[in-house]
Amino acid sequence: MMEVEEGNFDEAYDVYACMQCGKCTGSCAVSLRSDLNIRELMRIAILNKNEDLEKHEEIWDCTSCGICTVRCPRDLKPAEVIIGMRSSLVEGGTIPVTVRDALESVGTNNNPWGRPKSKRAEWLEDLDVKVKNISEGEEAEYLLYIGCTASYDPRIQSVSRAAINVLTKLGVDFGILGEEEPCCGSEPRMMGETGLFEMLVEDNLTLFDEFGISKIITLSPHAYNTFVNDYPECAKRLKEDDVEIPDIELEVKHYTQFLEELIDDGRLDGEMMNEFSGTVIYHDPCYLGKRNNIFEPPRKILNIIPGARCIEFDRREDRSLCCEGGGGRMWAEGTGTGERNAIIRVNDANQDGANVIAVACPFCLSTLEDAHVTAGYEETMRVMDIFEILDEVLK
Fold first, then answer.
1. According to the model, what pLDDT value does residue 12 have?
2. Rounded CA gap, 229 and 154, in Å?
């Protein structure tokens, strides 16, 4: 992501190539219930009207799902243009209070949830297994990167515990960083806080180098995306500015990719599992699917689970309906009205006959969990991370 100086959107994003076809807005699920009009924002960028941005509160409705970039016939990146616009607003101090508080919390507490750094590893207290702590000098082949949401949100903490249980049963040599685990910076970047993101990249790469970490398994597609796609670009830019950054190459996998490799190696199969009773429908997370084209690993895992009847949403893979949890939307109120995407999603799952919605993203789990309760499916449907399903069936 480039910093956008006043009147400089074209140099950063080549916006003059935009032909105003409107495919970006037409493909945006959020625009159906919000004033978010990406084509109009692209026009503002073409005209370099930075002064107009304060009038557009809907800039904060964008979930950064990336579908506008996928659909753009000119191969432009409208989602990045919106992040650049947010960056201009952050620079000018004209941002929603909730966004400001989240960003300040990352700076002071190393997480956007306003929780103390000392509480980051409290979820470990309920575990019956011993987990290596790399920050305390223990060595492991892989760092299991938990992430902010899976460390602090009580519902998502169960995914962290399930991940520990599953990887331990499978004999994976892994460790965590406990209280020393940093914020990956994905959400600050998507909220436009360029300076804070650069600081996190510099600090985190130094931390990984200090502890000899080169292989990372992430729970969150958002952490995966930022480690794989954003860190190298940011590190290169910092080095060009003569900032000292360790020369380390990170091998990063989302956990579904890692588990798929175990399946291919014969280290994970259905014979290791008990029966799972349920009709399971998989929800593609935007940051795994649309942004990184990772579609098969989650399905491969679900399809080897004995007893699980796996079905598909009509809107799946790169057409998957965004849950509206990404892009900082967990900390922005939003201007949209009408039925939330997550409600539409759980209604679709119910209509398709599913009683389990399987996810592979903490934000998706949070939004769909809330939606299935709101929609009245609490007694007939479960929303489960794939790690939670495996933890339930592995012998």
1. 83
2. 29
CATH of 266-393 given 3.40.50.10700, 3.30.450.40, 3.30.565.10, 3.40.50.620: 3.40.50.10700
User: pTM of the prediction?
Assistant: 0.95
For 335-366, how does the pLDDT look when each residue is reduced to its tens digit (9 = 90+)? 878 889 999 999 999 999 999 999 999 999 99
User: What topology does CATH give the domain 9-92?
Assistant: Fumarate Reductase Iron-sulfur Protein; Chain B, domain 2 (1.10.1060)
DSSP 374: H
Q: With beta carbons less than 8 A apart as the criterion, state whether 160 and 217 touch.
A: no
Q: Which of 49, 41, 38, 39 is nearest to 8 (CA)?
A: 49
Nearby residues of 102 by Cβ (< 8 Å), 6 or more positions away: 112, 113, 114, 187, 191, 328, 331
d(CA 162, CA 329): 26
Q: Per 3-state DSSP, what percentage of the chain is helix, strand, and coil (rounded to 5)?
A: 50, 10, 40
Q: Which amino acid is at 52?
A: D
CB-CB contact of 317 with 289 (8 Å): yes
119-176 residue pLDDT tens = 999 999 989 899 999 999 999 999 999 999 999 999 999 999 999 999 999 999 999 9
Report the C-alpha gap between 284 and 361 in whole angstroms. 9
CATH architecture classification, 97-258: Up-down Bundle (1.20)
- CA dihedral sign, ordered 241, 64, 284, 346: positive
